[in-house]
Design a protein that fits this description.
The protein is an alpha+beta fold. The chain is built from 14 helices and 19 strands. Bound molecules: flavin-adenine dinucleotide.
Length: 472
Amino acid sequence: MIFSNEPGPEALASVAGIRPSVYWLDRSERPTSAPALEGVHHADLLVVGGGFTGLWAALLAKQADPGRDVLLVEGGRIADGATGRNGGFVSASLTHGFHNGMERWPADMPTLLRLGHENLDAIEKTVGELGIDCDFIRTGELDVAVEAYQVAGLQHFADSASAMGEDVGFLDQAQVRSRIDSPAYLAAAYDGTGVALVDPARLAWGLRRACLEAGVRLAERTPVRDLTARGEAVIARTDRGTIRADRVALATNAYPPLLRRLSHYVVPVYDYVLVTEPLTDAQWSAIGWSGREGVSDTGNQFHYYRTTQDGRILWGGYDAVYHRGNGFGPQYDHSRESYERLAEHFLQTFPQLQDIRFSHGWGGAIDTCSRFSAFWGTAHGGRVAYVAGYTGLGVGASRFGAATMLDLLDGRETERTALEMVRTKPLPFPPEPVRSLGIRLTTTALQKADANDGHRNLWLRTLDRMGLGFDS
Ligand SMILES: Cc1cc2nc3c(=O)[nH]c(=O)nc-3n(C[C@H](O)[C@H](O)[C@H](O)COP(=O)(O)OP(=O)(O)OC[C@H]3O[C@@H](n4cnc5c(N)ncnc54)[C@H](O)[C@@H]3O)c2cc1C
């Protein structure tokens, strides 16, 4: 099925009463903000950014060395960024999927797969040990084919991933429709153990609590304005204070970076999400979705969707919007056009739910890099380290990203730092205006490929050969 982008009257009605706010964050249990930082401070380790990467970095550093003075500084509130806005798919994949990893790092892939599963297991274990109530469920993910040409691709994925020991099986049309009954589904690959689902805000708030209990100092509403090296330390300047830190871990994702070099490698790409009102029993039985598997369709422009603990469906993806000059900010957090298009696609997937109503809609920035998976580096003589570039798959990988960043910062040679993925950088994006032009060309070519049985034109084939891509 090729998704029609023209919203019909049912789609327009379904989003008419939408609340432009993030369903996960829009709750009274959201912790009150920690005080902003004022005056002159010192820290052994300064972590900048309070999303999953920063929270894991602070927690892992403190767990490894309780005597280390760790200060976490967040510009807004914890989980304000992508961490509070995502679909909550916690993937074991560190490489933005099996195929991308095999293409780029075939020799390291067995290690990357094992480390990815260990990382997911460690997240589950931490959630259990710390008693974080975040609806962490290990239900797996269905990648569904909605067009005939996608079926062979999923069969190939299931065969090659299972040959590498992954728990991925192929489901034919009847098998996938017996799990979730969409007339759009033709087949699926089901990854049974490599993906969990989580309530991302509750996980972040639980990690925030764990950081505080472990002795991490936390300042919120404290943007770091710049970093300068001074002697053996790094000085971070905030609006009302300074921090003199021995080491700095940068966990600022798609936000305007504190190191200029990062803007060559990362472009912020906006992705939008809808959440329905809770479904009635009749609506659930109309689509027969009784498990809690996450779902993703498999075009270049894809949707991801899942159920929530209180019986809603979260539906996001498809549009991946880049704004010229690495445009970033709250002015891009909502898009009526994207909401209407997403609602139309939802109804094309589930025509049984014509009377559905969406309650929430929001967007968030994805830190897209040209190889789709995280990269690391250091600056200021090794006293500053960073990780970025998860490209829309960082809920799980951020823990690995943080652990690897700490390895680099502390000068530890580990299995992680030996990986080619960690030792190399993605190809940079060209400067503007070529950047905007290239992204527009690529997006149009990907749309055409989706409408044309997946056939990639000369432009996409050239990018493929160069190992360059654009994804969300
Ligand atoms: C709509 C959407 C859906 C997604 N769905 C999924 C999904 O289902 N599964 C998945 O794996 N991934 C998904 N992702 C990606 C995932 O959310 C991110 O990869 C992950 O949350 C990144 O975490 P982070 O901590 O690196 O970044 P963020 O959560 O963005 O945190 C960065 C933090 O740094 C702070 N900051 C920035 N600059 C400064 C500064 N100068 N000083 C102080 N603080 C600063 C920001 O305020 C922010 O809180 C999605 C992303 C989006 C936007």
